[in-house]
Amino acid sequence: RIGSRRNAVPTSQLGGELMASDPRIAWAGARLDGVTLRVSLQEAEAIPQLPSGGQKTPVSIYAAKDGVITSITVYDGKAKVHVGDAVLAGQELITGVLRSDETHTLLTQARGEVMATVLYRFQATVGPTITKPVETGETRICARIGLFGWEFLSNGFAAEDAWAKYALTNCFLPFTAERIRLYELAEREASATQDELAQAALRKAERVMSETLPENARILSKESETVRLEDGALQASILVTTEENIGEIKEIKEPHGEQD
After folding, report:
1. What digits encode the pLDDT tens for the residues 160-217?
2. CA distances, 42 to each of 39, 69, 109 (Å)
3. In 3D, which of 90, 69, 65, 64 has the Cα closest to residue 81?
4. Exposure of 171 by Cβ count < 10 A (0-12 exposed, 13-18 middle, 19+ buried)?
5. pLDDT tens-digit series, residues 190-202
6. What is the DSSP string of 115-169?
7. Which residues pair with 147 in a beta bridge?
8. Distance (Å, rounded) from C-alpha 137 to C-alpha 254?
C-alpha cells in the first residue's frame, strides 16, 4: 500500500503468491523501481482443444502451413519433428499412433503445440492514377478583419469552410486584415506522384496483411519494397516473418489393424 516501507514489501514472495492466486498465470515477478512497484506476468498457454468427435477420437497434429520449427511441446502422442526442421503444409508433426504392427495398433489423441517461423509475402498494386481529393475549380474570395483578438467584420464565411489566409500583421496595433480564398475539394481519379502511389500501395498491402495474419502470430521482422511497373502503376510488397503455432488437429482415419 502507499506509505509502506520499502523493506516491508516482500517482492521475492509476491510472484509466488500471484501465481498461486490464478491458474492462468504461468509466471509472475515483482520488483521495486524507486517508489513504484512493478509486476510482470506471463499468461499460461492453453492446452489445445480436442476435436468435437468425442473423447475417444484418435487424432494427429499436422502442419497448417510451411515453416521452420522453433519449439515443440507434446502433451500426448509422439513428436515426428525436431527444433530446426523445415516442414511443409500437411506434414505430420505430432502423431497419435503410439504403436502399429500387423496385428495391433495403439492410438491416442495427440495434443501439443508446435511453434514455427513462417514467412509471408503480401502484395498490392495501385495506379497509375488514384482517387484523391482534388480542387474542382469552384472558389470564393472572403474577407475578415480583427482588432485586439476580436473579429468585427466577416464576409462570405461558412462554419465548414476550409481556407488559406493572407494576413496583414506588421502593425503597431494587434490588427489583422485577411483575404481568404475558399476552394472546393472532391474525390476524383487523378494522376499521382511516385510518393502518393507508394503510400497508397503500402496501405493496401497493410490491409491485406492485417486480414491474413493470425491473431496469435508474433511478428519477428517486417520489410517493404516498391517496384514501378511498365504501365506506370506501382506494386508494393511486404515481407513478414512471424512465429506462431502451426499445429492443425486432424482425425486419424487410416486403418491400423486391431486397436488396443
Report:
1. 444 444 444 455 566 677 778 888 788 777 778 888 888 888 988 999 998 888 888 8
2. 10, 22, 28
3. 69
4. exposed
5. 778 888 888 888 9
6. EEEEEEEEEEEE-SEEEEEEEEEEEEEEEEEEETTEEEEEES--TT--EEEEEE-
7. 150, 175
8. 72
Residues forming a β-bridge with 198? none
Nearest Cα to 251, choosing from 35, 43, 28, 95?
95
- Across the range 226-232, mean pLDDT stands at 87
The neighbouring-strand residues paired with 5 are none
Tell whether the model's pLDDT for residue 69 goes beyond 90.
Answer: yes
Q: What residue has cell string 488559406?
A: 164
| pLDDT computed for residue 240 by the predictor | 93
| Half-sphere exposure of residue 231: CA atoms within 13 angstroms, side-chain side | 7
Cβ–Cβ under 8 Å, residues 176 and 145: yes
Residue 214: all three cell numbers together: 493470425
Question: Three cell numbers at 115?
Answer: 511453434
> Is the C-alpha dihedral spanning 210, 213, 217, 221 positive or negative?
negative
97 Cβ neighbours under 8 A, 6+ residues apart: 58, 60, 78, 105, 106, 107, 252, 256
Question: Which residue is listed with cell 499412433?
Answer: 97
Enumerate residues 6+ apart whose C-beta is below 8 A from 212: 120, 122
Q: What distance in Å separates the CA atoms of residue 76 and residue 26, rounded to the nearest whole number? A: 20
Distances (CA, A) of 74 to 32, 90, 99, 205, 258: 37, 18, 17, 36, 25
C-beta separation of 226 from 202 below 8 A: yes
Check if the beta carbon of residue 197 is closer than 8 Å to that of residue 128: yes
